[in-house]
């Protein structure tokens, strides 16, 4: 009898080593090696039909299946998937615990008019029913299966013949082909490979919910992300109601798209007009608030930047930022100090993007700068002004991409004035009804806003 072969695997990246190591040479994580039984030969083949039926085909001879993409009723999910759900695709959904991954998937299962098989290894039938009632069941064709054994899940899937298969979560599945525990690198890899084979052969789109590690990556081997067609990240601040669905990989569409949801008492509500809720409409003008027109993917919306500048209580001034890169904030403060003569060196600066949203669009720079200046001078920015420009290291106001869309969004929401960069090639301000102020230096912006 042959001896069972074991090896040590890094639980965060899947690196294999014949002996235990304290630090992984591949991903540098500590104490992540676990001994696992090596897979039986041949079990990890990702996607192949029986070796004899696959033959090379000329591309011109491949007939395209007419109904490649099915549009979903959930517009936000459609958008991030690139216009609909592609048949036979494998989609991985990751996100922090409690962010709403199970809710999003169950909602897809019970609200779309499709035959869905929802497999849960995390909750009991009762718990799922309770959640479904909370969301409101519209689809009676939804099958629920609470099972963690991969082979029986595949048998049930072949019997039910669903139009969509959902697995909550990939880390709870185990295959009897492999002896290591559920959630280990080899189990996750093997289960994903089998589900990949299932979805490609049966053309059933499959969603996998994946846990994430403490640095925000999908737990399990890195190959997981290579195997699947699309990786969606569900993110947001748990203390706020807004959730963003982003694509970090998509074989069938752009990765720039985002979907926005609001977590309500009865499930996740798609947000179609983000600007209207991300900006607070108050009659009182407050200092330290500036509105920026930003773009995520191809979608423009307005966000509210809030800054608080106060004399440093302790020797070293504090700089803290939520939703905006702290290094970029420090850079903007240095530009204000050095190029524009504002003395902020002995001030605490706090910055926040309202609604718990994170932005990394440089086009919000000018609004950040103006929010800081407004709080520093304790002068509110008059209502009806929005900003869309980047600030350079010499204090110059730089143009941003898709300025037309940004202006159109601001105009649509009834703002009176937008401040953008001077140097935009081929830009014609007379196309818009809104008052467009083009500036090249921060001093000009200050003049345009406060006088
Ligand atoms: P869940 O989908 O269980 O998160 P995940 O699967 O990502 O771990 O989401 C749980 C959170 O969502 C929980 O804190 C309660 C909240 N929630 C609502 O606010 N409204 C609802 O209708 C539902 C179903 C959940
Ligand atoms: Mg869950």
Textual characterization of the structure:
The chain is of the alpha/beta class. It folds into 3 domains: 6-37; 70-272, P-loop containing nucleotide triphosphate hydrolases (Rossmann fold), CATH 3.40.50; 277-450, Ribosomal Protein S5, domain 2, CATH 3.30.230. The protein contains 11 helices and 23 strands. It has a 9-stranded mixed beta sheet with strand order 8-7-9-10-6-11-12-13-14, with helices on both faces. A 7-stranded mixed beta sheet has the order 17-18-16-15-19-22-23. Helix 5 links the parallel strand 9 and strand 10. The chain starts with 5 loop residues before the first strand and ends with a helix.
Blueprint of the fold:
Blueprint: E1 6-10, E2 16-17, E3 33-37, E4 69-70, H1 75-80, E5 85-86, E6 90-95, H2 101-111, E7 116-120, H3 125-135, E8 142-146, H4 150-160, E9 164-168, H5 185-202, E10 206-210, H6 223-227, E11 230-235, E12 242-250, E13 258-264, E14 267-270, H7 274-278, E15 289-296, E16 299-311, E17 319-322, H8 326-340, E18 347-353, H9 365-377, E19 385-387, E20 390-391, E21 397-398, H10 403-412, E22 417-421, E23 435-439, H11 442-450
Parallel strand pairs: 6-10, 6-11, 7-8, 7-9, 9-10, 15-19, 17-18, 19-22, 22-23
Antiparallel strand pairs: 1-2, 1-3, 4-5, 11-12, 12-13, 13-14, 15-16, 16-18, 20-21
Bound molecules: thymidine-5'-diphosphate and magnesium ion.
Magnesium ion binds at residues 101-102, 122, 168.
């Amino acid at each position: 009898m042959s001896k069972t072969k074991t090896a040590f695997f890094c639980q965060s990246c899947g690196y294999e080593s014949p002996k235990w190591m304290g630090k992984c040479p591949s991903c540098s994580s500590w104490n992540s090696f676990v001994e696992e039984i090596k897979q039986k030969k041949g079990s990890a083949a990702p996607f192949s039909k029986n070796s004899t039926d696959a033959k090379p085909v000329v591309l011109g001879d491949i007939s395209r299946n007419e109904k490649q993409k099915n549009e979903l009723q959930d517009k936000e999910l459609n958008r991030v998937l690139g216009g609909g759900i592609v048949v036979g695709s494998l989609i991985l959904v990751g996100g922090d615990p409690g962010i709403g991954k199970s809710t999003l998937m169950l909602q897809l299962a019970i609200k779309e008019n499709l035959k869905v098989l929802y497999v849960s290894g995390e909750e009991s039938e009762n718990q799922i029913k309770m959640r479904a009632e909370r969301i409101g069941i519209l689809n009676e064709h939804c099958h629920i299966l609470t099972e963690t054994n991969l082979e029986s899940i595949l048998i049930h899937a072949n019997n039910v013949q669903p139009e969509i298969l959902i697995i909550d979560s990939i880390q709870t599945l185990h295959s009897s082909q492999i002896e290591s525990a559920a959630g280990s690198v080899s189990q996750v890899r093997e289960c994903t490979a089998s589900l990949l084979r299932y979805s490609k052969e049966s053309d059933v789109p499959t969603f996998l919910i994946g846990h994430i590690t403490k640095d925000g990556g999908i737990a399990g081997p890195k190959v997981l992300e290579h195997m699947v067609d699309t990786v969606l990240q569900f993110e947001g601040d748990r203390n706020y109601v807004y959730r963003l669905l982003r694509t970090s990989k998509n074989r069938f569409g752009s990765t720039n798209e985002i979907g926005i949801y609001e977590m309500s008492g009865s499930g996740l509500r798609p947000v179609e007009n983000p600007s209207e809720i991300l900006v607070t409409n108050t009659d009182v003008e407050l200092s330290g608030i500036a509105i920026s027109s930003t773009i995520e993917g191809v979608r423009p919306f307005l966000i509210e930047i809030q800054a608080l500048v106060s004399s440093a209580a302790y020797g070293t001034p504090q700089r803290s930022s939520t939703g905006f890169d702290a290094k970029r904030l420090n850079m903007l403060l240095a530009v204000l100090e050095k190029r524009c003569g504002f003395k902020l060196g002995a001030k605490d600066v706090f910055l926040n993007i309202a609604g718990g949203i994170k932005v990394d669009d440089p086009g919000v720079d000018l609004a950040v700068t103006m929010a800081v200046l407004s709080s520093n001078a304790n002068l509110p920015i008059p209502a009806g002004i929005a900003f869309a420009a980047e600030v350079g290291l010499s204090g110059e106001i730089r143009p941003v991409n898709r300025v037309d869309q940004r202006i159109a969004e601001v105009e649509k929401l009834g703002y009176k004035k937008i401040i953008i960069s001077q140097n935009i090639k081929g830009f014609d301000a007379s196309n818009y009804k809104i008052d467009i102020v083009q500036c090249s230096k921060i001093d000009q912006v200050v003049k345009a806003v406060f006088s």
